[in-house]
Amino acid sequence: MGRRVAIVGIGQTHHRGRRPDVSVGEMINEAVRAALEDAQLTPKDIDAVLCSNMDFFEGYYLSDLVMADYTGAFLKPGFKINTGGTTGGAAAEVAWHHIASGLFDTVMTIAYQKQDEPISSQSALMTISDPIYDRMTRSGNVFAYMAEQYMHEKGATEEHAAIDRVKSDQNALRNPHAHLKLNLTVEEVMNSRMLAYPLRLLHMCPQSCGACVLIMASEERARKITNNPVWYKDQVTVFQECWHSTSEPLGPNPVESTKTVAARKLFARNGITKPRRDIQCLEMYEPASWCELVWLEDFLICDKAEAWKLLEKGVWHLEGEFPVNPSGGVVATNPIGATAMVRVAEAALQVRGDAGEHQVTRQVRRAIASSYGGFNWTILHLLCGSPDD
Amino acid sequence: MDSDKGEELLMVRATYDVPYHWSAGQYVGKFFEELRDNGRIYANLCPKCGRGLIPPRPWCARCNVRMGEWVELNGRGTVLVFSVAQQSFWDSGRGEMTPVPAAGAIIQLDGAPVLLRHALQETDPEKLRMGMRVEAVLKPREQRIGTLNDILHFRTIEDEGHG
């Protein structure tokens, strides 16, 4: 597995729907400064800088142009990473590669998105998919299909998605960095505007502007930088076929979820046999409330058709047996290119015990963070309080 | 630098107009050609796992083998799951707002173990159900240009009697 790697600095912007007061570079710089401050480092301590976003949102493709001017990368090595929705998670992963390999000791990795720059975020987003096939047929909403199938096959109701959304909102209300803090009721969620049955407006993630920065270091460096390193223990990335219709979880050739493949591999090689016992919380990339329920099952955190039942018992709540998205999750905050890194950052804060008002009740020795993107691709990260965990 | 003082927050505006033409490739190209010229819908089959792919592709990504036989489908199928979009947005590929309501479905086609995501003609959710039977409606020959949209949509089969 290479050298041990720890997260030693964490920085985020206060994520918001619009940031007309700053340019992209200025927004990134806010998170860079916050991470350096958190680690008590200066740019001269950083060996390499990585940055990531989904560049079609800002509309220019050499997005690493920001690096030298706004991040302290002048005359340093590094590069830009773009893997779609997982990109912020991939940027954390690549920092891990840099350090675990022995080539670098201290790496700053940056993820950002300024979703108020495109006039229509959705029209920028649709340029992500295969132009010949998937984009052409505007072939329905992937989360609406998922939700309908979950209700039909697993017995969940619309009320469960609403309860889950309210749970996330209550967490977001405690998180100073969260974007949407709505103090919602179940009724408000259930009566919100229909986007594509059964998917409603308040089930979906917002468009946010924000940046997230992690500073990661080798064990030797980490122990000099902080008394409280969070160990980036392991990580699994899983791809699948890139075209709709080929990669459905239903029909005559059902494909196993990339989430299940990732969880099985990560749990097996880290001795995790009872996930809700051996791991203490999860920061999941859930683009819609329905995803949180379906994917808890796909990630093997509970059995099939069980996520909505455990929701009713409060298991996923902040004070629950296995808190999910104590930060409020993606339905509250979605600076999309940074969203996957925010999951890692928030999971690290939980391990470090520094999440403040949204620190979970149970003691967190291990946390997992997931990235969603590409074509239903998954990155699953394992963070630990001790390198021997 | 305090925005409360009422200074203008300046925006620099621009719109890209970047035309593309994408190569369909040998397999999808042949599929589009058959659809456009002859109104035929083909899938091809994996010789190892037996699944079909539509449009046909050169390799089965799951088995890592070259795909085999091409089979012509009759354009009929069964809706496995559907949704009806009510929210319109700017379609940057076509330069227009997306039409709503717009019904989509994952359809299991007859004649090969294959799924297709496509549009449904019926947009009233009350008239849609899982398991309903549908059939492809092609655009007229002169409007077909060799894309998956040469299939206009799938319409509900009211009576699937034989004869």
Quaternary organisation of the protein chains: heterodimer
- Helical content class of chain A: 25-40%
Task: Determine the strand fraction of chain B and express it as a percent band.
Answer: 25-35%
How would you write the strand order of the largest sheet of chain B?
10-9-6-11-12
CATH topology-level name of the largest domain in chain A: Peroxisomal Thiolase, Chain A, domain 1
Mean pLDDT of chain A: 95
Pick out the low-confidence regions of chain B: none
Count the domains of chain B. Answer: 1
Can you tell me the CATH architecture of the largest domain in chain A? Answer: 3-Layer(aba) Sandwich
Rg on CA atoms of chain A, Å: 19 Å
What structural class do helix, strand and pairing data of chain A support? alpha/beta
How many β-strand runs of chain A?
11
**H-E string of chain A:** EHEHHEHEHHHHEEEHEHHEHHHEE
State the separation between the terminal residues of chain B, measured CA to CA: 78 Å
Give the SSE string of chain B: HEEEEEEEEEEEE
Count of separate DSSP helical elements of chain B:
1
The tally of helices of chain A reads: 14
Distance between the termini of chain A: 14 Å
User: Which percent range fits the helix content of chain B?
Assistant: under 10%
Biggest pleated-sheet summary of chain B: 5 strands, antiparallel
**What coarse outline of chain B follows from CA principal-axis ratios?**
globular
